[in-house]
Amino acid sequence: MEGQLSSKSLDWNLLWKQDKKTDSARNRRDYWDRRAPSFTNSSVEDGYTEPFLNILNAAPDWTVLDVGCGAGTLAIPLAKKVRGITAIDFAPAMIELLDSRCRSAGINNIATHVTGWEDDWSSLGIEPHDAAIASRSLVVEDLRAALEKLNNFARKRVVISAPAGAGPFDPQLFAVVGRELKPNPDYIYVYNLLYQMGIYANVSFVVKRFCGTFANPEEAFDSVRWMFEELSRAEQTRLECFLSAHLVRAGERWKLDYERRVHWAIIWWDKF
Q1: pTM, two decimal places
Q2: Which of 205, 212, 248, 261 has the highest Cβ tally under 10 A?
């Protein structure tokens, strides 16, 4: 129809900036430092890590740049499959945890750096790798700049992931608290922007199941508290009451009586 905008004519990088929810907490290092310990819980990674690494399909002689590596969700299992990994994250606690896990497992082919998307990676001696990956780490203001940078640091393949729909946010909890869920831009912004950049990417969807357990109800609350930058006393009370009603015993620990599923889009392309 005349006058109707198509996905080709839209500025997807501008839309990303406009639709990106302002959340100052998640842009701070201390926020991710506090969350770092939860990233070592492998029980909440079911259905995600293996499909991502299968799509990466790295050869044994490859080097991989892991941007936003966290505590090593991908770097740790990937280390035994490739020649070397450079793992970077802007949260020092994440890198400390990854280094600790490497020491405990006797892994010596992961080099780590505390650095972020906007920093000069070359100044740290980081050069292009055979593959560059960014798993759930596109927490950036300028999406185009991040994608171009990732593409420039990969010689053979790039693999990234972005949420599909609400992503890691639990709509049920937002309803309980009494807030409207307005998730950040999802994978379609990334895919369409790549198309406008002349990159014809592939997309595969995976479902990550959250099925972790908690030492106590307080830990269960902390595991979902991150979804809300600030909670009023009334909102916090409603959330605590909901969790208490849905927490059940799992041996000596606790778990929720419902399973939450998060859909992720894994996007990848090869360099030619």
Answers
A1: 0.85
A2: 212
